[in-house]
Amino acid sequence: MRSHSLPDSWNLDQILDDLNAHGFAIINQAYPDQYRAQVSQECSHHMDEFREAGIQNGVVSNIRSDHILWINDQLPIAQQHIETLTLFSQSLNQAFYLGIKEVEAHFARYNLGEFYALHRDNPQQKNDRIISTVYYLHPEWQEDWGGQLRLQDKNEKWHIVNPEPNRLVIFQSDLLHEVLISKQQRLSITAWLRSGNSIWV
Q1: Is residue 1 in a domain?
Q2: Smallest Cα–Cα separation from 41: which of 135, 147, 138, 166?
Q3: Using CA atoms, how far apart are residues 71 and 183, in angstroms rounded to an integer?
Q4: 94 CA to centre of own chain
Q5: pLDDT score of 200
Q6: How far is CA 108 from CA 5, 17, 104, 105, 155, in A?
Q7: Given strand 51-52, what is the order of strands in its sheet?
Q8: In the chain, where does DSSP find H-type helix?
């Protein structure tokens, strides 16, 4: 899927308009489905390397129960998504003067009954996360399987976003959001477009 331009499915003008008006944007069929399948397979091959995201520095958090694996050069297929987001960051910087310098990302796995309670990715501007993204990897999803992203937009209106396969959700990191309880295994790449150095938590 390597390319020096954004995928054809990314309507950049619409994405920028949605981010400006609402603070979030959705891209359906973000990549060719062959890529989604390849990156999903790469994720599955490394399942035994995931760790509990609810444990930070040995302290158990009760607001989340998912499992994560940070993405680096050892995961070359997922790294292509990071490269695309890096290219996309240039357009965001030109449009909104955000000063994005880098992208950090991890695979996220929600098993049966797992969730992430209401939070902000950049609470009180305490880190350098500016834009958050979630890219859904699973091959299928039904509405009664849960796992939706519940998001409050910049106008304080609430939205429920289904984790449709090959869907990419882009939103301001300071917006309130949560992941509702999942009833099936839910796979994604969560990435943050940042204005500073990686914190790798």
Answers
A1: no
A2: 138
A3: 25
A4: 22
A5: 40
A6: 26, 28, 13, 9, 28
A7: 24-27, 168-172, 129-136, 186-194, 102-110, 67-70, 51-52
A8: 12-22, 33-45, 76-96
User: Residue 146 corresponds to which amino acid?
Assistant: G
Closest by CA to 198, choosing from 132, 128, 135, 133, is 128
3-class DSSP state of 51: strand
Show the domain range for 21.
10-192
Token pair recorded at residue 175:
């917006």
Burial of 23 (0-12, 13-18, 19+ CB in 10 A): buried
| 168 is a domain residue | yes
Tokens 């999803």 locate to: 141
pLDDT digits (tens, 9 = 90+) for 63-119: 888 999 999 999 999 999 999 999 999 999 999 999 999 999 999 999 999 999 999
CA 76 to CA 54: how far, in whole Å? 26
pLDDT digits (tens, 9 = 90+) for 110-147: 999 999 999 999 887 668 999 999 999 999 999 999 99
| CATH number for position 80 | 2.60.120.620
Token reading at 96? 């909104």
Number of domains within the chain: 1
- Which residues touch 134 (CB under 8 Å, ≥6 apart)? 108, 149, 163, 168, 169, 188, 189, 190, 191
- Decide if 200 is inside a domain: no
Q: Is 2 inside any structural domain?
A: no
